[in-house]
Amino acid sequence: MKRAFVCAILLFMPVRSAAPSHARRLAAGPRLAESVQVRAALEWFDRNLSWINDAQARLTEIPAPPFQEEARASAVSELLSESGLPARVDKIGNVIGELRGATENEIVMLSAHLDTVFPAGTDVKVHRNGNRMTAPGISDNGSGIAALVAIARALEFAHIKPERTLLLVGNVGEEGEGNLRGMRELVETYGKKLKAVVVLDGSGTDHVTTKALASRRLEAMITGPGGHSWSDFGMPNPINALIRGSMRFINTKVPANPRTTFNLGQIEGGTSVNSVPYEAKIKVDIRSENEEELRRLEAALRDSIAAGVRDEMEPPRDRSKGALEWKVELLGSRPGGELSPDSPLLAALRTADEFIGNQSRTERSSTDANIPLSLGIDAISIGAGGTGGGAHSLQEWYDAAGREAGLKRALLTVLGIAGLEEAKSR
Ligand SMILES: [Zn+2]
User: Of 41, 111, 267, 380, which one has the greatest count of Cβ atoms within 10 A?
Assistant: First the structure.
C-alpha cells in the first residue's frame, strides 16, 4: 500500500525547472515577495494545486490515531526527503525536515500535527467531489500536513536559502491525550535556538491564534467490590456514585468572562446489566481564559466526585457490603500564554496578510503553540487555507478552493521571520 502511495506521489510530482542563478534577493519585510525566488515559490502553489489536493487525500487516508502516527510520519518523511529536505524521525515520532540557514543556531519552525482524534479502524477513505473532500481528519489536520509538504516542495523548487534554519515538522501528539507531547519534545530539543514557531492546524485564512488557551484533562474513577444485581442489592454502586457526582459537577457555575468551559466527554464502566459494577470512570475537559478559574473548576470536580461517593454510601439501603474508593487523575495539562502584540512574528504575519489581501482576527485557542507560548517563545497557529468544517466528526470536510492564499500566507510568514540568506550582507 505504501509503495503504491509513494509511486502515485511521484507521478504527481511537478517537473523541476532551474531557478535563475543571478536572482536578486531582497531583504525580508514588505519587499520579501519581490524576491525572484520567493515569487517562484509562490507561483509553485498556483501551478500545483491538484498535486497538493492529491497529497492531502493520500496522507489523510493513512490512519494516524493518537499514539499511532508512525505510518503517516514515514509517508511525510519520504515526501520531505524527496523535496530535498533531509528528514529524520526523533525518538517520540516527530518527522523533522531541515533547510539549513546561514545562521544555523537560530531556528524557525513550521509544524503540522500528524495525529487525528479518530481511533484505529475508523473508515478514513476520502470522498472527493471537485474541490470538496470529505473524510475524518481531512481538514484537521490533513490540510495542515498537505500545506507542510507543499511548502517544502515550493522552497526546494525555488532554491530558497533562508537566513535562519527552517525546520518543517510533522509532529505527534497534538490531539486529546497526546497532550502536546510532540511539541513539548521539539521545544525541549531546540530550546533557546528556537526563535519562532508557526503551527499549521486545520483550514482557513481568517484567523491567527496568538493566545494559548489553558486546559486540563481529568479522569475521575470510582471503584467498589462489585457483585450480583439481585443478591448483592444495596452494595454501593460506582456507576450510581459517578452519576451522582457528575450531576453535582454539571451544576457548577462558570463565568462567561473570563470564558470558562467544561465537557464530560467520555464515560465507561460496568461489565454487564446484571452485575453491580466494580468500576466507573469519566473523562472531563476543562478550559479557561484564566488559570485561577481552571484551578477552581478542577477543585469543583474533585469535590463533586467525593460528594457523589458520600451520597451513594448514605442510607436508605444497607451499605455494609463494602465501600467505594475514588480518585481524580490529571491526564493532561496545557499551559496558557500570549504572544506580544509587537512581536516580529505577528508583524511577519500581518505583512503576509497584506500581500495576499487578507485580514485576520486574533484568537485564543488550545493548539501546539501553547507550549512555546507558555515558555516565552514567539508562536502562532494559523489555518492552512481553503475552508473546512465538522472537525473531529465523521462528516469532516475540506474545500480546497482558494487554498493557495493560505499557503502563500504561511510561506511568507515563515520567510518573513527566517529571512533570506543574502539579506544580511546587503
Ligand atoms: Zn488540529
Answer: 111
